[in-house]
Amino acid sequence: MKTAYSSVTLRYVHDVVTGEFANIGVVVYSPAQRALRARFTTSYERLNAIFLKIDHAHFRAMIRYLGNRFEEMAAELRDALQLTPVTGLTDLVQKVLPRDDSSLQWSEVSGGFTGNLEQTTKELYARLVERYERTTEQQSRSDEDIARPFKTRLEQKNLTPKVCEKKITAKDYGYEFQFAWKNSVWHLYEPVSFDLMNPKSIIEKANTWLGRGVALRDSDERFKLYLLLGEPTQPDTRKAFEHAQHLLEKIPGEKKLIREKEIDAFTEKVAADIEQHDRA
To answer: Which of 41, 54, 194, 214 qualifies as a FRET site for 7, CA 20 to 30 Å off?
Structure first.
């Protein structure tokens, strides 16, 4: 038996004047089933390739918040059997993310009929979000792609619980690193993909990291930064990658640039250091 559903798309609107945007998620709701489903992309590389200068730490944090909040709301709707179900998807999504002038905006509500809300959600996500990501992924690799071998090896050695996200805060700026562990100082590991189609994007990304390093140098916490570099696969971007590395070398403080061919061996050393520290 098919029931009515409504859906909205979450858009990242880069410029409200020109109306440039990219779809980053979908939310689907069936009042009769008391069922709410939401799917959001975790990849910011497509946005960065299109618009440049995306704050990926803020983007990841916002996507985590949205995912968690919609899971909570779905449970509330499902379990509140004695209550009259909410009938407006617009009201639901605006409880999580109110309509304002920020870069995240909801589309107009659409809908239809479905016999399987889960499948419908997957199909809408694939059509409205995922197919555009696949186009980008054929052309470039994300930071998450570069992180995968590092993360997988730590998981294989059961060291994932030893590694955490860590926010380093300075006077005027703070940044949350994906992978970190501490002995006498914080060791911060961050994947940075330069496998981008646009040479200008490569330079801008390196320049962003240089500025980030300068902004964090007056932090009260001692740390050493390790950047895991994903190298470009397009021949016409190799020169830009050379310039990018020169910019990264200017980052102040203790740092080390790990080239892609070195990541496997470097990960083994990191794992050995963590294990040795735990035995001490």
So the answer is: 54
Name the residue range of residue 66's domain: 3-137
| pLDDT, tens digit (0-9, with 9 covering 90-100), for 134-153 | 544 445 678 888 998 999 98
Tell me which DSSP letter residue 16 carries. T
Whole-structure pTM value: 0.55
Q: Are 6 and 111 in contact (CB under 8 A)?
A: yes
pLDDT digits (tens, 9 = 90+) for 81-111: 555 556 689 989 998 988 876 778 899 999 8
Last residue of a domain, one of 137, 170, 194: 137
| DSSP secondary structure of 104-170 | EEE---EEEEES-HHHHHHHHHIIIIIHHHHHHHTT---HHHHHHHHHHHHHHTT-GGG-EEEEEE-
One domain, residues 165 and 125: no
159 in the same domain as 237:
yes
Q: What CA–CA distance (Å, rounded) separates 147 from 186?
A: 19
Q: Please indicate, yes or no, whether residues 95 and 155 belong to a single structural domain of this protein.
A: no
Half-sphere exposure of 130 (CA within 13 A, CB side): 10
Contacts of 184 (CB under 8 A, 6+ apart): 222
